[in-house]
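Exercise 7 asks you to align residues with tokens for two separate proteins.
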Amino acid sequence: MLLLCYTYMIIITNVKLKENTMKLSESTVSFLKNYANINQSLEFREGSTLRTVSPLNTILASVEISEDFPKTFPIYELNRFLGTLSLFKDPELDFSESSVSIKDGNHESTYHYCGSSSMFQTPPEKEIEFPDAEVSFELSEDVFKKTINAANTLGLPEVVVQGDGKEIRILVADTGNTTSDSFSTVVGATDKTFRMIFKMENLNKLMEGTYDVRLSSKRISHFKRQSDTLNYWIALEANSTYDE
């Protein structure tokens, strides 16, 4: 069964393009590359919404794209599919029941879908009903970059958003080590006290940009990128705290 997920072939021939083909924009390809870091597999669903979820259900991502996929189809190894697209200068895609034909001039690739999307984790059918957010702030692209770079430089496993009743700070730390190094930035004001904790490996999968961030004491967060329709819902760690 897995053989179906990996089979593809390159054909060099004179190709006459059919109607009803589609092309993927650079922005859509960039979203797909990001999704491949969240889950190696992806179920493309009919329509213009791309959604994925991490294997452990800790990250859910969704974005509206300009293209409109004509059918639902599963791809087991997304990076392999993207690599096949990169073989072409200006690829056009034509979808059949069992495969997608990728064409550019005299070149054509037939890439077969995976046997079934049940072979990997897929997003829930229903949209997330996000609970009331007790904490919200803007996370600028510059602060986001510096925070991720600081965590990587210092080798720290967590990113913490904490409030002391006055300021909201985002910092990198090791919450299991009270003497660990840290790096922090003020990102807002608050009259609440909380300590919301993310695994660094989860935040490291977000695309760059400025985000509107909402945090819930239900241990769920929402990151909405300001420049487009990209959304991430990320689980908070069990040792996160919020004082009523």
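Second protein for Exercise 7:
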Amino acid sequence: MDTDGLREVDGIEITVLIDNKTDSLSTTPANFTSEWSNLRKAGMEQLSGSCQCCANHGLALIVKAWIGEESKTILFDAGPVEFAVEYNGTRLGAKFGEIDGIMLSHGHWDHAGGLPMALDLIMQQNNNQEVPVYLHPGMFRQRALPLPGEDLLPIKEIPNPEDIKAKNGKPVITDKPMNVLNDMFFVSGEIDRVTPYKVGFPGHMRRSEDGKEWEPDPLIMDERYLAVNIKNKGPVIFSACSHAGIVNVMHAARKDFGNIPFHSLIGGYHLSGANEKIIDQTVEDFAQFDIDLILPGHCTGWRATNALEKKFGEKVVPIAVGMQIDM
């Protein structure tokens, strides 16, 4: 298996630094802490709008894993914009200096736009010590989206390896799977497309190799997932946007980890917009994976979240900005 050598960790702590929504009122399980409670722990003396985090279209998760006294922390994606990283991180008292590495799930602005600020904050708190940044070689070409009745809308390019080096990040560029940070985390390889109903992102384009033309890029093959395996619980799978199809992500994880139940699946499932037509098939396919906790966020969409909750009940807990999850 690709995960050979991955160590089982004793536990993990997930901080939702950036997500599309804010929600401190909905009930959650005992191991979930809401944004308001986390703001209070970080020093908030009275509740006000200026104290709260900012919801933004994107995703950034700070994931700390430990084995005994040993711990490692990874930043999984960096959200859409530098402002959100600093604004939310400051209010939550995020310990950027403890971040040992960064993984970008794929080359879209809503997951990479905040990377320069994240690196700045890490360097300010860790005495300017270089950190690895795990990247796919295909994520740096500019992308574009079609607008109904209009021309292509170019998407802002993400920071390139030279930009990252200038911020004292160390680019680790490969499309191969690997264990990282003392073998506590697993960065997947490319995700095979095996479900017949998930056919990619129609109309998605990228620049050609020479940068002169646009070419079709519906599969977005640079997208990968992150995982950590918790002792006596099982793997936790982090899928930031699931352009590959969230069921394909789970099939890839099953191939990587073997036929063992997943403890949790967290991130964006990309079942909003045009993908709403595959919600029913996707929800039905979830059942085969026996997931303890289904934690949708970012681009999942309210219709898919509602369908998942109807099918799986209390196993479904939508994430929100500022939330902390202990496993």
